[in-house]
Amino acid sequence: MVSTTCIVLGIPVQEGAGRLGCDMGPSAFRTAGLVTELRNLGYAVEDRGNIAPAPQREVRHPNGAIKALPETVAWTEAISEAAYQASGDGMPIFIGGDHSLSAGSMTGLARRAAKEGHEFFVLWLDSHPDFHTLETTTSGNLHGVPMAYATGLRGFEGFFPAVANPLKPENVCMIGIRSVDPAERSALATAGVTVHDMRAIDENGVAPLLDAFLKRVAAADGILHVSLDVDFLDPGIAPGVGTTVPGGATFREAHLIMEMLHDSGLVRSIDLVELNPFLDERGRTALLMVDLVSSLMGRRVLDRPTQSYRHTPKAH
């Protein structure tokens, strides 16, 4: 990994999910041993505790379906600033909390990447693209908008904080997608985002799909953020989420992705989102997510030669 200091930030946001329970996620990740596992792998770990939202302001939108807009905006402001600060000190690991937290984490990290002069890339591991705008959401649950917001789609102006450094859609790779609303499908058709649904994984295997994206990140000398939603995984192995969608990634596919990410040396930050301990089975999902983070951070069954994605200078 690029940075050896892991900075754990708890984000107990649940307002974006439409049901209660995600606010307990940070405690569940800590109870499942996240900090201990990272230290056992040789990393310095700074747990900065749970952040709090910024002060709320009155925000209303004509779309009457939208829920908890002032709360989500307040969280986004606080998370974005925390992400910017933490990414200057080490490798942030955002433990949520619903996926609305990524509206803050991605915009803060993109600001940091721009300051450092690097291209910012995101690997989005999720069953949903979260590509709704405030106009198109019909559920009103704002965990469905962070990618649209971070990539600078119109319709957030005057409601959410202005995005100083929009994430380029062509720098986003989504893997595991299997639940897309019509408005999202239409927006994705022209956005330039790379989307690999579960059929693509079935037909090609996950390794070549991820490998192609990692090569693009390396060629651009980019900074890579990984956003891992519990519902990326098949609910048979990860039941602790309020948005279960059958047919998700298997245990072996998920670990392969994490091991490839570690081998790449490109990952600079991670979101762990949508864990709802109230729906989990004796901590099963929290433990699996911590297990996956351990693989991403370098734990392996056997030592083996690995492909380097970083360029090495040519001899002259």
Automatic annotation (TrEMBL):
Q: Which cofactor does it need?
A: Mn(2+)
Where in this chain does the entry annotate a coiled-coil region?
Answer: none
Which pathway does it serve? Nitrogen metabolism; urea cycle; L-ornithine and urea from L-arginine: step 1/1
What InterPro entries does the annotation carry? Answer: Arginase, Ureohydrolase, Ureohydrolase_dom_sf, Ureohydrolase_Mn_BS
Among CDD domains, the record links this protein to: Arginase
Reactions catalysed according to its record: L-arginine + H2O = urea + L-ornithine
The leader peptide range reads: none
Q: Does the keyword Hydrolase apply?
A: yes
Look up the EC number in the record and give it. Answer: 3.5.3.1
Name the domain of life: Bacteria
Q: Which Pfam families match?
A: Arginase
Top-rank EC class of the record's enzyme: hydrolase
One of the record's GO molecular function terms: arginase activity
For this UniProt record, the keywords arranged alphabetically read as follows:
Arginine metabolism, Hydrolase, Manganese, Metal-binding
Where do transmembrane segments lie in this chain? Answer: none
Manner of cofactor binding, per the entry note: Binds 2 manganese ions per subunit.
**Can you tell me which family this protein belongs to?**
Belongs to the arginase family.
Q: Which NCBIfam families match?
A: rocF_arginase (TIGR01229)
Record-given protein name: Arginase
Tell me which species this is from: Microvirga terrestris
Originating gene? rocF
